[in-house]
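Final report, closing paragraph on structural work. Over the funding period we assembled a curated collection of sequence-structure pairs, and we close with a single example.
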Amino acid sequence: MPIEILRNDITRMQVDAIVNAANESLLGGGGVDGAIHHAAGPELLAECRTLHGCRTGQANLTRGYRLPCRYVIHTVGPVWHGGTAGEAELLASCYRSSLELARQYNCKSIAFPLISSGAYGYPKEQALRIATETIRSFLAEHDMLVYIVVFDRAGLRACDRLYAPIAQYIDDNYVDAHLDLRREQLRRQGFSAPAPEPFSVPCMQAPAPGLEDYLKELDESFSQMLLRKIDERGIKDSVCYKRANLDRKLFSKIRSDVHYKPSKRTALALAMALELSLAETRELLQKAGLALSHSYKFDIIIEYCILNGIYDIDTVNQTLFDFDQPLLGG
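Its predicted structure, as stored:
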């Protein structure tokens, strides 16, 4: 199953379990912890009292009570001390312990906040990287739908080093904005749009080849090109679809159906997984009847990432998230 990043209130997530970024007492606090206790009602606090706390990096499970989830998994993230006090290992342990508890209780879906990235001061980019790496490692062995939930977009500005250059790249390449500006400049200068070219009747030509002749020239399909590129890269199918943040069942459909037509997000996720050049990406999209266009911010961001060698699906998705664009994979 893929990882999905959502902007939402975690207390409203209709999943089997949500994860609470708790303190060691498990008796409630501020931020996500306080919001979960408030939404669940006093019964949650009463059960938490019976657990007698939780150590950093570990997790405990309670019922969800008034929440729309069955369970709340309480985990205690590390306080950031500069990265030299074992914070990374403890944070990864929070995710592993929570996922293992969810598996033990037969949960099919789970929603995490970005643990330790609030009052505990863990740098958001590093926190998100540890979260996604740990979750992906777990999903390599288990099927579970995993969400990373943030309350607002600013809460996941983990790509500040990319935000400014990509914003500039969009400004430089976004067709609609430049066309509108150019039209306004021409209007103020008293110019109108150029008149269309006069219509002319084409000369008589020899009869075109028949449809059957054209069909004989049928090109390589999306599925065929994809599998060829996987072989050329010398990687396994499983490596490809995991890098692309795709479900194994969806990849199986693509492999088994030579005429499968993917969504644009799926096709681009696979292009990222294979680290295709921009020309190769355009060719792969063309096989599915798709294209990149400077009329869409989504396409410009993808183009920027490819041109700058940014192929990590989590980094690309963080960037798309920052600009309110749909994410790859899923």
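Strands lie at 3-7, 17-22, 59-63, 71-76, 109-112, 145-150. The first strand starts at residue 3 and ends at 7. We thank the funder for supporting this effort.
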